[in-house]
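User: Can you recover a sequence for this backbone? Please restate the input before giving your answer.

Assistant: Of course. Working from this structure:
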C-alpha cells in the first residue's frame, strides 16, 4: 500500500502542472485583462484623468500597448501598469515564476483588494465549508436510510413514487431550486419565513449562544437545501443500487438459508459491502458539493464565500486570486482522490490496490 500511495503522490506533480499550464495558457487569449479593466475604469470617469494628464487625445494617440482598453491613455502609464502586474516579462517566465512561488505557498496579493490571497481565502472559507459540510451530512443522513428502504422494497409503490420524486429533484438545477425557495419562502411573492441574504443577522454579536445557533440555522436553511437537492438524489440511487447488487449475491442466500433474521442479514452482512462505495466516496462528494454548486448559491443568497470570491475574481481578472485558489483546490482534489482510496481500504481491508496495480 505504501508504494501505491507514493505513486499517487508523485502523479500529483505532473497533473497539477498540467492543470496550471492549461489555465494559464487560456488566460493569455482571453480579452479584457487586468490592465484593460483598470483602463476602462479610468476612461469611464470621463475627462478627469485626461485633464490631470494634460494631454487630452494627444496623450494617448501613439500608445504602443496591445490592450484595447488602453487606447486614449498615456503610454508611460500603461507601461507602469505592465511593470506592476509583471506583464513586461515573457509569458513563459511569468508561468514558471508563478509555479516557483506556489511551490513555496507564496500566492501573492490580490490586485484589486490589497490583501494577500491566503488571508482572503481564509476569510471566505468558513462560509463555503459550512454550506458544503451541512449539505453533505444532510444528504447522507437522508439518502442512506431511504436508499436501503427502496432496495428492500424494490418494485413496490413506495419505491415507485419515491423514485419519481428523486428523479425530479435530480433534474432541477441547484440555482433554479434556490430561486424557487427565495420566491416561496424569502418574501419573493408568498411567505417571508427565511431571510433573503447572509448567514447571520446584524445583531448576531449581541445574541446569546442559543440565539446565535438559531439565527445561524435560520439563515443557512435555504442555501443548504438548495445545495443538497442534487447530491441527495444521486446518493439515494447509489445506495439503493449498491444494496440491490449485494442482496442478489450468493452469500446472502446462504445466510438466509442458515436461518438468520432479515435484519441480521441486511445489517450484519450486506451493509458493510453495500456501503463501501457510499462511505468511501464521502471526501469526493464533500469536495464536489463544496466547489460545485457554491458559486451560484453564494451569489444568489449574497453569501461571502469562496464561490462568490472566485466569480468576482474571474470578472475582475484578478489573476493572483484565480490561480492561487486554482492551485490550492486542484491540489486538494488530487489529495482527496488518494483519501478516497484509503477510505476503501479502511472500510474493507480486503481491498489491495497494490495487487490491482500490479
Amino acid at each position: 500500500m505504501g508504494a501505491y500511495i507514493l505513486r499517487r503522490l508523485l502523479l500529483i506533480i505532473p497533473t497539477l502542472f498540467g492543470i496550471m499550464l492549461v489555465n494559464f495558457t487560456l488566460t493569455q487569449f482571453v480579452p479584457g485583462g487586468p490592465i484593460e479593466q483598470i483602463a476602462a475604469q479610468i476612461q469611464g470617469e470621463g475627462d478627469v484623468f485626461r485633464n490631470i494628464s494634460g494631454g487630452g487625445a494627444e496623450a494617448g494617440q501613439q500608445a504602443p500597448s496591445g490592450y484595447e482598453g488602453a487606447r486614449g491613455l498615456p503610454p508611460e502609464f500603461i507601461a507602469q501598469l505592465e511593470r506592476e502586474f509583471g506583464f513586461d516579462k515573457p509569458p513563459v517566465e511569468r508561468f514558471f515564476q508563478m509555479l516557483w512561488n506556489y511551490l513555496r505557498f507564496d500566492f501573492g496579493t490580490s490586485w484589486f483588494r490589497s490583501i494577500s490571497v491566503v488571508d482572503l481565502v481564509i476569510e471566505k472559507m468558513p462560509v463555503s465549508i459550512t454550506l458544503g459540510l451541512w449539505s453533505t451530512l444532510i444528504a447522507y443522513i437522508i439518502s442512506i436510510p431511504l436508499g436501503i428502504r427502496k432496495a428492500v422494497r424494490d418494485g413496490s409503490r413506495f419505491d415507485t413514487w419515491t423514485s419519481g420524486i428523486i428523479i425530479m429533484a435530480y433534474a432541477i438545477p441547484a440555482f433554479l431550486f434556490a430561486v424557487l425557495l427565495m420566491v416561496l419562502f424569502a418574501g419573493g411573492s408568498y411567505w417571508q419565513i427565511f431571510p433573503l441574504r447572509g448567514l447571520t443577522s446584524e445583531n448576531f454579536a449581541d445574541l446569546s449562544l442559543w440565539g446565535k445557533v438559531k439565527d445561524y440555522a435560520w439563515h443557512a436553511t435555504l442555501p443548504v437545501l438548495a445545495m443538497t437537492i442534487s447530491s441527495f438524489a444521486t446518493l439515494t440511487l447509489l445506495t439503493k443500487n449498491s444494496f440491490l447488487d449485494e442482496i442478489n449475491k450468493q452469500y446472502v442466500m446462504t445466510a438466509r438459508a442458515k436461518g438468520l433474521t432479515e435484519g441480521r442479514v441486511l445489517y450484519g452482512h450486506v451493509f458493510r459491502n453495500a456501503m463501501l462505495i457510499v462511505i468511501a466516496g464521502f471526501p469526493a462528494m464533500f469536495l464536489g458539493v463544496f466547489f460545485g454548486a457554491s458559486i451560484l448559491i453564494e451569489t444568489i443568497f449574497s453569501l461571502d464565500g469562496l464561490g462568490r470570491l472566485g466569480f468576482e475574481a474571474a470578472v475582475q481578472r484578478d489573476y493572483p486570486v484565480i490561480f492561487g485558489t486554482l492551485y490550492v483546490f486542484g491540489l486538494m482534489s488530487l489529495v482527496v482522490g488518494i483519501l478516497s482510496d484509503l477510505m476503501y481500504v479502511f472500510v474493507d481491508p480486503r481491498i489491495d490496490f497494490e495487487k490491482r496495480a500490479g
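That completes the design. Residues 2-103 form one domain.
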